[in-house]
Each structure stands twice: as structure tokens, then as C-alpha cells.
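name: query_chain
kind: protein
chains: 1
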Amino acid sequence: MEPPASQPPFAPEAPGPPSGAPTSAERAIVYLMAGVQFVNILDFLMVSPLGPRFAEDLAVKTSDLPLVVGSYTAAASVTGVLGSLYLERFDRRKALVFMLFGLAVGTALGGMATGLGSLVLARVVAGLFGGPATSLSFAIVADAIPAQRRGWAMGIVMGGFAVASVLGVPAGLTLARFGGWRTPFWAVGALIAVAAFAALRLIPPLQGHVEKAERQAPLPALLRLLKKRIVLLSLAMTALTMMSGFIVIPNIAAFVQYNLGFSPDRLDLLYLFGGVASFITARVVGRLVDRFSSTAMASVGTVFLVIIVWLWFVRIETRVPVLVVSTCFFVAMGFRAVAYNTLASQVPEPHERARFQSAQSAVQHAASAAAAFVSAQLLSAGPDNKLEHVERVGLASIGLSLAMPLMMLVVERAVRARAAAST
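structure:
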């Protein structure tokens, strides 16, 4: 049966205190988008922890593992640019379903890789579709949820990241232990196909933005968007946020195993504990962002993150258990992610949300790819696959992290000034 033709109105952008409880329609869309985020993020998250397993089978150097992650994000940046030109011209539901099916194919191809080249190619295919899927998910949430409840909504949607860590990554590692590293790629590909069918059946058509978009030529519309000071500031904030995290994230699994002696059979516990902590953090921080501000919560997360990266990658503290440090790392990243996504969702006007989200996705993935590629250059593989010069990536992460709250403060003030002017 075709979903109803009605759609939620565009959400007002004026920031303010929470007003009223979410409606049942809002809850349905938010939780479905959280499910889409779960499978999409799981596809991305599982590659790093599986790295040591397929590195041995495919004769890939551990210092080259960031290239596998970076290939996904580089491809996603390309489709992010294309999406910023054309996504506003399509029904958001149909576009999301198409992207999810493409992502399912790309993920399944990863399980058929025979070497570094074919694995990188498969991840490129996945990235071409996975990046726009993320943008569309956030655009749908921004369409449906007023700014006053956006923190609550983003907290739940970002909880998809946590659930992927709690359930998905440990399950994928368990599948790899018993069925080989290829099995998780095929299993996740099947889950993404299921999510595509669910989105097709349960999301109503979302076309309120199409008529205005069709009256505008794509390239001039994008250039008008990029000429806005608030948009450029937001994209700079995006680049800082992603680079500060992804210069270390692709190396965590190899680092804890080969440098810290953490058993690969316990790697699922690392993501399980971190995922539980992230899930709780996302729900709590979402409410705190609505009550206080995105910058305040991002600042708390940044201080926490800097301390952890210093202890873990620079000082290489071994007296603190790996599971404790890794869980704290997930918590710090959760603070920053919810705060950042909530603030970014308030930057575009309603009719340019998908275009903005796509431009933001392009910057997100380009920055992540750049950070991963730089990380691969800073590191080298020593005896027994041990990563050398990890303190370099740790110091780079700290420097980038400290700049993030300052940029968020500038963006948040611009959002409030625009709202005050329109009022």
C-alpha cells in the first residue's frame, strides 16, 4: 500500500526553549531515520575493526588501512557535491531508497575483494551512495522536527551510531570470527536492503521543497547558498570536526591490538562498551543541547577528547585499561557529534536543506578522507605490524579539536543573529 501523500510541514528555524512533546508522527520519522542511520553507520564503522583480519588475508600493510576508510569518504565527498546540485529536485523518500539500495550493493561487493585494490574499489562504490543517504536522513529530520526539539531528534538519530557500536560492530566481529571477514560485509548489505524497503513503505512522500527547487538552476542555486556567510562558517566547522576525529579513528583497532597488546578476540567488547556509553550520551546530550547550547556541549566533549587522545596516542599510557580509555573516547565523540549536528541543522533555510546537507556531506567526507590519508602518511608499520609515530596523529587531532568549539561559537552566534533579524 502506498504511504499517505501528506507530509510534515517544514520546521520553523527560530531557536528557543523546548515547546511541547513530540507528536507521534515526529517520533515515527525520527526513529525510522535512526534505523537508517544504524545500517548506514554500521557499514562504515565495521571496516576499521575488521582491518587487522582482512589485512592478513589480503596482504595489506597495517599502515595502509586508513586508505580503505579514506576511499569511502573520498567517494562520498564527490556525490556530496553532486547532491548539493540536484537532490532538492527529488522526493526525499525516493532519493533515500535509491541511495540505500546502491549502498547495499557496494557493501556486498566488499565481501568479494581479492586485494587492496578491489577492496578500495568496493568501498568507493559504497561511499558514492552512503554519503547522500546520510544527508537525506538529516534533511528529513530537519523537515519534520521544529528547531526547538531538534536536539531531542538529533540525539535519537545519532543514537544510531551508538546502537551500531553496541549491537552491530560486535555482531560483525563475531561473524568474522566464525565465518571469516567477508561474512559481515554480506550481512550488513542485506540489512541495508531491508532498511531501503522499510523507508519505501513507511516514509510519506516529501516533495514540499521540489517546486521551488525546480524554478532554480542547480549551479546558481548552489553558488547562492555558498555565498552565505553562515553556510561557509558552518562548512568550516564541519571540516574541523571531521578531521580532528578521523585522523585517529581508522587506526584504533590496529593500535590497540599491535601497540597495546589488546586481544583481537576482545575487540567486540571495546565497541560494545563504547556503544552503550555513546547511546546514553546521545540521549542525554540531546536534551542538554536544547536546554543550554550546542557550543557548550561541544566544549565539554572537546576537553574530554583532548585529555583522552593525549593519554592514549601521545603519552601512550598503558596503566589505564584499554576498555576504559576507549569507552571515554566514545563518550567524548558523542558529546561533539550531537552538538555539532544539532547546530548544523539550523543553518539552512527549509527549501535548501538537502542541498546544504549534501554540501556538508561533501565537506564531511572530503575532510575525513584527507585526515585518513594524512594519517597514513604520518604512520609507518614496524615489526609485527606495530604502528610507529602514533604521537604525530595524536598531536594533530588535539590541535584540530581545540579549534572546533571556537568555530561552533561563531556559527551559533550567526544562527541567533539571523533569527533575531527575521523576528
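note: The longest strand covers residues 380-381.
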